Amino acid sequence: MTDDLPTRHRTFCRLCNAACGAIVTAAGDRVIDVRGDRDHPVSRGYLCPKGRALGAHHHHPDRLDEPLIGRGEQRASAGWDEALDHLAGAIETVVAETGPSAVGMYKGTAHYVESAAVGAGPAILAHLGSRQWYTSLTVDCPAVCLVAELVVGHPWLLPVPDLDTRLTVLVGTNPMASHGHTMNIPRPKEWLRRWATDGELWVIDPRRTESADVATVHLAPRPGSDYLLMGYLVRELLRHGADRSYLERHTTGVDALAAAVEPFTLERCTRGTGIPGERVVELLTKIRATGRVSMVTGTGLNFSDKANVTLWLTWMVCAVTGSLDRPGGMWFNPGYLNQTHRQTWEPRDGTPGPGPASRPELPERFGEMPCAAAVDEIESGNLRALVVLGGNPLIAWPQPQRVARALAKLDVLAVVDVIDNDVTALATHVLPAAGQLERADIPTGSELYALRSFSQYSERVFAPGADRRPTWWILRELGARLGLDPAARRDPGAASEAAVLDALYGSDADRWRALHATTNAVVTPERPHGWIHAALPDQRLRLAPAMLIDELARTRDPESRPAELLLTNRRQLRKNNSTLADGHGLARSAQPGSVLHPDDAAQRGIADGDPIVVSSAHGELRTVARLDGRAVRGTVSTPHGFVEANAAALVSGDAVDPATGMPTMTGVPVTVAPA
What we know:
This protein has about 675 residues and is of the alpha/beta class. It contains 26 helices and 26 strands.
């Protein structure tokens, strides 16, 4: 018990990019209550179960409290100077023996939201001369960035629904559980109901999700067939329903696009997707009548082997109707700080960089190597030292048993994390990071993909406990020992957290001061339209990138009656990837389990709750059956992010998209049998 009087702290949740406002009540060094902030101008009191578990996560019994050096019985506690000196020395030995490219870093989901540490990892690698930078992007959504780069010339410019949209289509995404993927949406039920009430909301997903329950219409295509629907819509809209004035002023490649989608007839669409023809025509008619449309995609598409062409075609539905960067369609949020529309950039054309030595056929994109190649790099001896920042390769990368063997083989495996886990167990160096309540932050992942232009600044609720340090400090100290800004080591107090954030985000002094002047989020009414067109050469979107035209022509339609079940994925409300997958602090924890249609289960002698084995050509996982009549027959919906029931065991680092290196994680043929 503590005698300290309770104090209330306004902050925001960083367990996903929605960045919902939270009120944390603390007594001394203990969190005694977490609830939504009713005065927050964006989330308005909403806080999902993940956010309400912030206190329990902060007090997790497996919190990392002190630096550790060594593996197994050789592991011992160390002070920070000893641990960082030892780590820097080990890295320098690897560089001396094999070269700087033998050193790499992996950035996981938790590190994306550490605003003061942005850019620190790549800066260290650049100083050493290594390109071995990996992030969870390449096992999550590289197609999203590739399509943006090919169409608008910038991988991070992703449109979100305009506030005045009257027709919203969600494709392979379930914001009710995920709060968006490349669209950040607090209060998801309220927004989805608004879209359904003010206009229409269509959900396209093989499973009748929580979002589909709120929708005007739900269409259930076969996994991996969405591109057939989108190709048909683009074909017919170009024939009747296109905004010709918009296309003439703002696009190139209309004729090439029309030729590419000409084979996408209604008969081909319905045969491949399994969607009745009258429902397909109904959607087409609705788009024509409304004039503009918002299309939002998510993990269901990104994990597919057809992600590139499907995402591109959803962009094209918006483009041919004049809905991109226009009121009532999709808008490009320029961000509250360091606003994109005030900057200039050299538009990229999608040309990749050279891939890793062991997998030269896989490209470097967006300054990143594909995670699917990391194990090959380790096994070949090209990668000998790896620093893991807020991620779990054993869950995120394909073939976890192979990953575990590779990580154990590394000369150096340094893990910067908050909670002890199966990756820290393999590490040579464990560096305990401050949790989100122990650091100041702004929502770096929310600004560009939010429905409104906003930002917020939060002071830390607690000073870092035990012997933890903020990640920015850990990387600064490591970089100093490796020769990057050695003055930082001579004067450890030279950079405070406030100074680091100010250097990174303070270029717009007025807006930065406005953030610091309030304890709440700052929302601006501005919603600029047309700035993307103005920033591009000749103000033109590229509708027909040769890479995507060629890939579409090579794409084979899915079988209408596959012999095996097809793996699909899903996100869950009570965890974000692996975070909170152990259920700690949740009143009702996220549960592993594969969702089957009751008829598919009955054919295999499986009842609800039975232990089952799900097998693919690449491996198997043991889990439990969850029967749901809302699932599409012929599918097995399995969430990722669990250690034991690891969906990554069903996919391979060899079965990847050659354009992005993304492993195919949905639409994979599987068998299901009683365990």
